[in-house]
Specification:
Strand content: 5-15%
Number of strands: 10
Distance between the termini: 39 Å
Strand order of the largest sheet: 1-5-4-2-3
Length: 286
């Protein structure tokens, strides 16, 4: 067990292995991939997952009324899906993905948005779990209904109007998790119809810069340095953004790890901002 284990943010594989049989532990495989990765998360889950894990479908447990990808679901839908998966009040949740640390943080943020704080991301995800010699299974978990009390925290999410205002006033740090080439407008976006560039005034902290080579998150002192080296003023409230609100949650998790709590996530992210010609864009470095 590591001193860095925190059941509200991040836990290591040894912590999870030690708690695997706890009656109130619930595990999610929240693997999700970009189309060009050519991976099927549900098929991979069925082939091998951590014992007891349920599959969390990020695209389905979302607001399907929106044209934007995997926007946060309505409270009622989130509650019904969690009940159906046997996850509720009093449970400690651990969420992981098949990349190391990629999409799991999105579910961590979503739980916090819904007022649930007893959730941690598995540091290094399934690859680290396997590399550390822990077992996987193909057996689906036994599920019993469990009620969940939800109190949505609107301060953790921002819409396009709020982000546009923040960009104009400069009273927030808007931090973009996309690759430097996409941020600068030099690389094509993975979704068709998107303009290239970034939100004016935003800073670029590529999510991979927050991670070690094995997919684990860097320690808090190193995380703080990454933000500061990117020109982020940590005294200002932060808004995290990315392509579609997935890797922006890695930034949110990193901010939480360094003790910064005045952050929110732009759920529409570049999938929304890059689509509308009337929203300003910038190119080049921050």
């Amino acid at each position: 067990m590591s001193a860095a284990d925190d059941p509200k943010t991040l836990v290591g594989t040894d912590w999870l292995a030690a708690h695997l049989k706890d009656p109130d532990l619930r595990i999610f495989d929240a693997s999700w991939y970009l189309p060009d990765m050519q991976r099927d998360p549900k098929a991979e889950y069925e082939k091998a997952h951590i014992p007891g894990a349920r599959f969390f479908d990020i695209d389905e447990i979302s607001d399907l009324r929106s044209e934007l990808p995997h926007m946060a679901p309505p409270v009622e839908k989130f509650m019904s899906r969690m009940r159906a998966m046997g996850v509720g009040d009093g449970h400690q949740v651990v969420v992981y993905d098949g990349m190391g640390l990629f999409s799991a943080a999105r579910v961590w943020w979503l739980f916090r948005l819904m007022g649930q704080t007893n959730i941690a991301v598995l540091d290094g995800g399934l690859p680290k779990w396997i590399a550390d010699g822990h077992k996987t299974t193909t057996v689906p978990p036994t599920i019993r209904d469990r009620h969940m009390t939800v109190q949505r925290r609107d301060d953790l999410v921002r819409d396009v109007t709020e982000v546009a205002r923040a960009a104009k006033l400069g009273d927030h740090e808007i931090i973009d998790a996309r690759s430097p080439a996409r941020f600068r407008g030099e690389a094509d976006e993975p979704r068709e119809g998107m303009r290239k560039g970034h939100i004016p005034g935003s800073k670029n902290v590529h999510y991979q810069d927050l991670l070690n080579a094995d997919g684990t998150m860097k320690p808090p002192t190193a995380l703080r340095t990454v933000f500061m080296d990117a020109g982020v003023d940590l005294r200002k409230p932060a808004i995290t953004t990315c392509g579609s609100g997935v890797t922006a949650a890695i930034l949110a998790l990193a901010l939480e790890r360094i003790g910064k709590t005045d952050y929110s996530l732009y759920d529409g992210s570049w999938s929304e901002w890059g689509m509308y010609a009337d929203l300003p864009i910038a190119t080049g470095a921050a």
